[in-house]
Amino acid sequence: MTDSSRASRRLAALMAGMGTLHMIAPKPFDAIIPESLPGRARTWTYLSGAAELGCAAAVAHPRSRRAGALATAALMAAVFPANVKMAHDWRRRPLPLRAAAYGRLPLQVPMIAWALRVAREAGGRGAAT
């Protein structure tokens, strides 16, 4: 198995795991949905979980890997405001919880870079793969 194949499989697994968590345990995700979004938080939680599952499926399949990885990078950027909200909301929580919330912020950068690397390595492969 090549490094690029391993990276794409791990990215797909991460996205599938997070998407599944959104569906089976939505309450913690509801709490970090920015209030400025219209509608119910639970709707946004389920929509983001479905998007993560869709990205996972697309990254897992060689024909859609490039598009799926680009969508994954975009999704990770789009959910950044929720991570900022979490860090703000948890600013008075015990240190380990604060550290986890604050630690998520800079982790978005390597996560997005990982998705972009998978997209770049998938290149223009398309239907021939």
Q: How many structural units, i.e. domains? A: 1
What shape does the CA trace take? globular
Number of helices: 6
- Average pLDDT value? 92
**% residues in beta strands:** under 5%
The rounded distance between the terminal residues' Cα atoms is 15 Å
What does the largest sheet look like?
Answer: none
Instruction: State the total count of DSSP E strands.
Output: 0
Rg, nearest Å: 16 Å
The level of helicity is over 70%
Question: Spans with pLDDT under 50 lasting ≥5 residues?
Answer: none
Helix-strand sequence: HHHHHH
Organism: Actinomadura chokoriensis
Protein name: DoxX family membrane protein
Task: Lay out the secondary structure.
Elements: H1 3-24, H2 27-30, H3 41-60, H4 65-78, H5 80-89, H6 95-122
Helix pairs in contact: 1-3, 1-6, 3-4, 4-6, 5-6
Protein name: DoxX family membrane protein
Structure in words:
This is DoxX family membrane protein. By secondary structure, the protein is mainly α. It has one domain. It contains 6 helices and no strands. Helix 5 runs antiparallel to helix 6 (95-122). The protein is globular and about 45 Å long. The mean pLDDT is 92.
